[in-house]
């Protein structure tokens, strides 16, 4: 049982980095209205579809190193929203990649806090020295 949204988020990213499907699904609410959007992929809705999406992602065998930065959090008594930058690196790949913007939504229920939504989107290519908090200007 997760007692805080941060515990859920920590377990989510640990499961993600280990490509551990059982640990990944342990963070998700058992409510069928859960949803997930992987970068560049369509939205999937429902626990079975979310599970299938993670199973497909983990099946490629890549081992990932994931770090999180620039959290922005809003937490109430029953819901919490976290926006973070995900820095994802494939082990053995020395190329620097732009961070991914992710929004994680958590709800508190009878079994404690659980994830109900994860939405991850690519950011525009940035140099390693760019300020990820700078406003994005689109022309």
Structure, explained:
With 139 residues, the chain is of the alpha+beta class. It has a single domain (5-122), classed as Nuclear Transport Factor 2, Chain: A (Roll), CATH 3.10.450. The chain is built from 3 helices and 6 strands; from the N terminus they run H-H-E-E-H-E-E-E-E. The chain has helices at residues 5-18, 21-27, 47-58; strands at 35-37, 44-45, 64-75, 79-90, 100-109, 112-122. Strands 2-1-6-5-4-3 form a 6-stranded mixed beta sheet, with helices on one face. Strand 3 and strand 4 (79-90) form a beta hairpin.
Q: Which fold name is given in CATH as the topology?
A: Nuclear Transport Factor 2, Chain: A
Radius of gyration over C-alpha positions, nearest whole angstrom: 15 Å
| CATH class identity | Alpha Beta
| Main beta-sheet strand count, sense and barrel state | 6 strands, mixed
Could you write a compact summary of the structure shown?
This protein has 139 residues and is of the alpha+beta class.
